[in-house]
Amino acid sequence: MSDNIDEESFAAFLDGMRRFVRERLVPAEQQVEEEDEVPDSIVMEMMNLGLFGIGIPPEYGGLGLTVAQEARLSIVLGEASAAFRFVFMPNVGLGSRSILISGTDAQKRAYLPRLATGALRACFCLTEPGSGSDAASLRTAARRDGDFYVINGSKRFISNAPRADIFVVMARTDAQSSSGAGISAIIVERGTPGLQVGPAEKKLGQRGAPIADVTFDDVRVPAENLIGGREGLGFSTAMKVLDAGRISVAASAVGMARRIIDEASRYAVQRTQFGQPIAKFQLIQAMLADSETEYLAGHALTLQAAETLSRGGDARNLAAAAKYFCSESVSRIADRAVQILGGAGYISGHPIERFYRDSRVLRIYEGTSQILQLVIARTMLKGFE
Amino acid sequence: MKILVPVKRVVDYNVKIRVRSDHSGVETNGVKMSMNPFDEIAVEAAIRLKEAGAAGEIIAVSAGPAAASETIRTALAMGADRGILVQSDAELQPLGVAKLLAALVRQESPDLVIMGKQAIDDDMNATGQMLAALLGWPQATFASAIAVAGPGIEVTREIDGGLETLSLPLPAVITTDLRLNEPRYASLPNIMKARKKTIDQLTPEALGVDVTPRLRTLRVEEPPRRQAGRIVGSVDELVAALRDEAKVI
After folding, report:
1. Is A366 a catalytic residue?
2. Contact criterion met (CB below 8 Å) for A62 and A53
3. Which of B14, B185, B191 has the CB atom closest to A9's CB atom?
4. Per-residue pLDDT tens for A74-86?
5. N or C end of chain A, less CB within 10 A?
C-alpha cells in the first residue's frame, strides 16, 4: 500500500522526526509528567505531521506506512516519553486496523479519514475485569434488537478511553459460544446513552497516557456499527493485527532503550568519583556494554520481524520474540541505568527514574511476557510434533 | 508578493564540531549537514506570509556545492514553491554570496528577501546587509516579528536594551533572529511533493559574478578546553579568586 514512499523521502521524514523528538517532545517530558497530559500545541503538531494516520492508506487520508516503516518511526519516537506515542497510537493500532481490515466500505469512509487526521480519537475496548490474557473469555454482551445492538458489560484498563471519541468494543454477539468465534467488534460513539468512562487511573508510570474503565449499560447502537457487517469477525480480526501491535511495542521499547543508554552514558562520562569519570570504571563499562548489546539485538530482531510482516510473511514468532525480548531487556537496561546514576536516578524529576517506571508496563500490555513465551514455544514445538 | 529565501548548507547544529588537523578549517567530511537554523526561520516566516495570503511565490535559493540542493529540497518540503542552486565548489564568502543573490534578485524581481541573520558555521552576519547595500534596498535585520502593513512591511527588531519597530517600503531585505518563529517539521506528503518541485541550476559565471575570496583564513583553532570548577571555602576566597585569577571584578 505504500511502495510509493521512496526511501529517500522516508529517511528525510525520519530525520525531521528525530529533531521533533529532541526539540519538542523531550523538553516537554517533565511538563507531561507533572500535568498528566500532553500539551495541545504538541497534539496539533502531531496532527499536522500526519502521525494519527501513519498506518491508514492514502486513499483514506493517511500516510500508508508499511509495518517496517512504522517500526522505524516508532523506534525514533520511542526515545521520548511514552505519553507522546499514546496520543496517536490508539488511532493507528487496533482501533483503526479493525476497521481497515474487516470494516465495510461505508465504515471505512465514515471513520478512517477522521481517524487519519486525528479529528476523531479512538480507543480499543478488549480487556475486562475478568478477562485479560484469556481474551476469548470476555463477557461483555451485544444482543441484537431489530436494527440495533444492545451492549452490556464493563471494560478495564482501556488506553485512551478518557479522550476517545469512538470506542471499538469487543463484545460477545453469540451468547451460546464461549470461544473467540462468538465475539464481534462494534463501534460505539461517545455520547451514546449508557456509555460511561470512569476516571483516569493513577498508574506506576506512563503519566499522560490515560487509561480508564468503560462501562456499557444497555448501550444501543445501530446495527451498521458492527465492524464488517457480520457477526463473529471481531476476535479473528484482532488476531490478525496482533503481530503489528507487538512489533510496535517492541519498536518503542528499542527507542526507549536507546534514550536510557544515552542518558546513562552522558551521566557516566560527567560524574566523577575517586578522581575520575565513573565511565572509566570497568564495572560501569560492563553495565553499559550489556545494555548496548541488548539494545542492538532488540533493534535487529524488531526490524527483522517488521520487515517479514511487511513482506507478507509469517511473523507470529518473530513478533512475539521481538516484543518479549525488547520489553524484558528495556526493563534490565532501565534498571542498570538507575544503578549507574545511583541516587540521582532514584529521584523524581530525572528522566531515568521516569523511564524506569514507564518501561515496566511494556512487559504486560499487548501480550504479557508469559503469554509470549507460550506463543514462541508452541510455534517452535510444532516442528517436532 | 514574491519572496526570495536564501538558505545555506551548514554542519548540523547538533554535531560536535572538529577542526581539521591542518587547522585550515572545520571538518565537514562525513559530517551531517543541515539547513542553517536561522534560514529555517526565514523559510518559515515566508511560508507564514504565504499562508496568511500576503505572499504568492516563495523561491528558495542556495549557493554552494551540488549537495546544497538537499538544503533547497528541505525548504521545498517545508513549503517553498521552487528552488535555484548556484553551484560552485569554490570558497564562498559573504560578499560573493551577496553578489550572487543580487544577480538572482535582478533576475527574479522578488518583493522581499528573507534570510537568516547569520550562518552558524562562520557567524559572519554580513550577507543580508551586503545584499541590501548592493541592491540599494531598505533592510531590517534581526527580525523578531514581521507584519504586512499597507503597501510596506513592519519589522520588529531585537536590539540591545529592547525592541525597535521599523516600517519599510518594498522591496526590502529582512534578516531573521531566533525568536521570530519555531520552524515546522516537514510532513511526509510534503517531503514527497517537494521531490517533484523544480530546482534550477546556475553557476556564478552564468550570472556574471566574480566570487573570488577577498578574505584569507590563516588558521582555525578549537576554543580552549574549559577548566574544571572548584569549590572555594569562603566568600573571601571566592572574591580573591574572581579578582586575582579570573580578573572579572
Report:
1. yes
2. yes
3. B191
4. 999 999 999 999 9
5. C
Which amino acid type is present at position B161?
G
- A11 at the B interface (CB within 8 A)? no
Four-residue CA torsion sign, B27, B31, B37, B42: positive
What is the reported pLDDT for B111?
A: 97
- Whether residue B132 is predicted with pLDDT greater than 90 in this model: the reply is yes
A41-72: per-residue pLDDT in tens? 999 999 999 999 999 999 999 999 999 999 99
Distance CA A351, CA A371 (A): 30
How many domains are there within chain B?
1
DSSP one-letter string for A312-374 = T---HHHHHHHHHHHHHHHHHHHHHHHHHHGGGGTSTTSHHHHHHHHHHGGGTSSS-HHHHHH
Tally of CB atoms within 10 A around B244: 9
3-class secondary structure per residue, B202-221? ECCCCCCCCCCCCCCCCCCC
Show the domain range for B147.
2-244
Contact B146, B37 (CB under 8 A): no
Q: Are the Cβ atoms of B186 and A10 closer than 8 angstroms?
A: no
Class of domain A7-120: mainly alpha
Q: Which chain A residues are within 8 Å of B189, Cβ to Cβ?
A: 50, 63
Q: How far is CA A376 from the centre of its chain?
A: 20
Cα B76 to chain centroid distance, Å, stands at 16
pLDDT class of A1 with cuts at 50, 70, 90: very low
Residues of B in contact with A60 (CB under 8 A): none
Amino acid type, A75: I
Contact A12 B74 (CB under 8 A): yes
Residue B231 has pLDDT above 90, yes or no: no
Return the pLDDT at B124: 95
- Binned at pLDDT 50, 70 and 90, residue A3 comes out as low
CATH 2.40.110.10 maps onto chain A at: 123-230
In this structure, is residue B249 part of a structural domain? no
**Residue B207 belongs to domain with CATH number:** 3.40.50.620
- What whole-number percentage of chain B has pLDDT above 90? 87
List the grid coordinates of A35.
Answer: 500535568
Q: Does domain A236-382 have CATH number 1.10.3720.10?
A: no
The pLDDT tens digits of the residues spanning A237-293 come to 888 888 999 999 999 999 999 999 999 999 999 999 999 999 999 999 999 999 999
Q: B218 in contact with A at a CB cutoff of 8 Å?
A: no
Percent of chain A's residues with pLDDT above 70 = 99
E-strand stretches of chain A? 122-125, 141-145, 148-159, 166-172, 183-189, 195-197, 211-222, 272-273, 276-277
Q: What DSSP assignment string belongs to A132-157?
A: SS-GGG---EEEEETTEEEEEEEEEE
Q: Are B64 and B203 in contact (CB under 8 A)?
A: no
Among A28, A36, A46, CA closest to A210? A36
Domain formed by A123-230, architecture: Beta Barrel (2.40)
Say if B228 falls within a structural domain: yes
